[in-house]
Write a structure and sequence with these properties.
Helices cover about 30% and strands about 35% of the residues. It is of the alpha+beta class and about 180 residues long. The protein has a 5-stranded antiparallel β-sheet with strand order 2-6-5-4-7, with no helix packed on it. Strands 3-1-8-9 form a 4-stranded antiparallel β-sheet. The relative contact order is 0.28.
Length: about 180
C-alpha cells in the first residue's frame, strides 16, 4: 500500500477551495485536477509498504503529536511548481508558520528512525489542485496565468490531527483513504 502523512481539511474548506478555483478548471483540459474530497496538505510521502507499517507510523506520529497543540493554517494564494510559466503542479498556498515547520521537521526526524530518507527539499506547505499533463498547451498555460488572479479564496482552519493515509492510483484519479488519525496535543 502507498502511504503518506497528511493534514486533512474539513469538508467545508475542501468544497470552498473547489468552488473558488473553478475558473482554473474552466480554462485547462491539460491539467488533471484533484477532486475536492482529495484536497489535503501532504506532510511526508512514505511510499509502498505492507500493512504492518501503518501501526509503526501511527505510534511514531503519536510521539510527535504530543508535543503540538492544534495549528492554525492560513490558506490562500494560488501558484505552480516550479512556476506559472512552466507549471507541473498547481497549488493553493499555506502561509509559513514556525509551528507547522517544526511539526514537519519533527515528522521528518521521526520517520527517519523508521527508515525513511529525510526530504532535502525546503518544506513548502500547499494544497495540490492539479498536475499538468504532458500535452498541456501554451494557450492553456497562458489562460491559467490570467485566471489565477481571479481566485481570491482565503481561509483559516485548525489542523487538529496528523493522519496516516493510503493512496490508491487508478485511471479515474487517486483515491485517498484515512487509515489512522493522530490528534495533536
Amino acid at each position: 500500500m502507498r502511504l503518506f502523512i497528511a493534514i486533512n481539511l474539513p469538508d467545508s474548506e475542501r468544497q470552498a477551495i473547489h468552488r473558488a478555483t473553478a475558473p482554473l478548471r474552466g480554462v485547462a483540459r491539460g491539467v488533471t485536477w484533484v477532486a475536492p474530497e482529495c484536497l489535503h496538505v501532504t506532510m511526508k510521502f512514505l511510499g509502498e509498504h505492507g500493512p504492518e507499517m501503518v501501526t509503526s507510523v501511527r505510534d511514531t506520529l503519536a510521539g510527535v503529536a504530543r508535543g503540538f497543540q492544534p495549528i492554525r493554517l492560513e490558506i490562500g494564494g494560488v501558484g505552480a511548481f516550479p512556476h506559472l510559466h512552466d507549471p507541473r503542479i498547481f497549488w493553493v498556498g499555506i502561509a509559513n508558520d514556525p509551528k507547522l515547520e517544526l511539526l514537519h521537521h519533527d515528522l521528518e526526524v521521526a520517520c527517519e528512525r523508521l527508515g525513511h530518507e529525510v526530504d532535502a527539499r525546503a518544506f513548502r506547505p500547499h494544497i495540490t489542485l492539479g498536475r499538468a499533463k504532458r500535452d498541456i498547451t501554451r494557450e492553456e498555460i497562458d489562460a491559467l496565468g490570467h485566471a489565477v488572479p481571479s481566485v481570491r479564496h482565503r481561509a483559516a482552519v485548525d489542523a487538529r490531527s496528523i493522519d496516516v493515509m493510503q493512496s490508491e492510483l487508478s485511471s479515474a484519479g487517486p483515491k485517498y483513504t484515512l487509515l489512522e488519525a493522530v490528534r495533536l496535543g
